[in-house]
Amino acid sequence: xxxxxxxPVTRDVHVTSPVNVYLTLxxxxxxxxxxxxxxxxxxxxxxxxxxxxPVTYAIEPRTATHVRAQAWxxxxxxxxxxxxxxxxxxxxxxxxxPRHPLLADGVRRFPGLRVPxxxxxxxALIPAIIEQKVxxxxxFAAQRRLLRRFGEAAPGPAPEGMLVTxxxxxxxxxxxxxxxxxxxxxxxxxxxQASAKVAAQLERLxxxxxxxxxxxxxxxxxxxxxxxxxxxxxxxxGDADAVPFGDFHVAKDTGxxxxxxxxxxxxxxxxxxxxxxxxxxVVRLVQLSPLAARDRRGPRMARVDHRHI
Length: 309
What we know:
15 helices, two-stranded antiparallel ribbon, five-stranded antiparallel sheet
């Protein structure tokens, strides 16, 4: 039975090893003002657009291995079925061997860190396209503007200001001047709208579990390259091996953290090869590690970024 405002769909999920709900789901947050994501103490609020409609959900850890999820809106039943994948319960880090003191320290510090699988490809793809070749602060502002202009009020008792992302039809219909006003150039706008037009195919492939086919379909979209596909992979597909090659900061930070110097993409691929199957896990542990933070400030730079598509 679908939820109502007063009667959410509720599910308790028990897992066999710890899950850090916030660190896992924080991968889905696009900047501090993301209107689809809120943190309220230990509870995470988020909105999504399922095949069955919009949903607001709240996920709260009761213990390290017990999570309670509640959902409101037309997509609530579908969302609640996906909670184990969403919190990374299907991500298996047991075969990961740190092989480096910094990574071993990260495993100790973050024992419940997982890679989520939302199954919602377009929801991860549009923001990734908006983030191409611009600083995060500008991309997050563009995303907020577009959601406030074209998003839908979150169903249920969501925190004030939360919104649901537009559906594919609405993304495809956004006029060019609205993208411009949001600070999204024509190339990225075209890629976003081309993605929206094939969203049904992308979602069907994700639902089938054929992740290789999802990646092939993503790469066939003009304006979607390795970096963008990886950004989708570790959010929508739960891919712990999805390396965002083409991101200057990932190569620089990973090289500095693990071998003491900045490296390029070719060297990054070589460096990460021993961890194939868990290469994004390595990148994520480097991003979170306080031991890797000392080189991150760097010189002041103009407001351009180094991410490829």
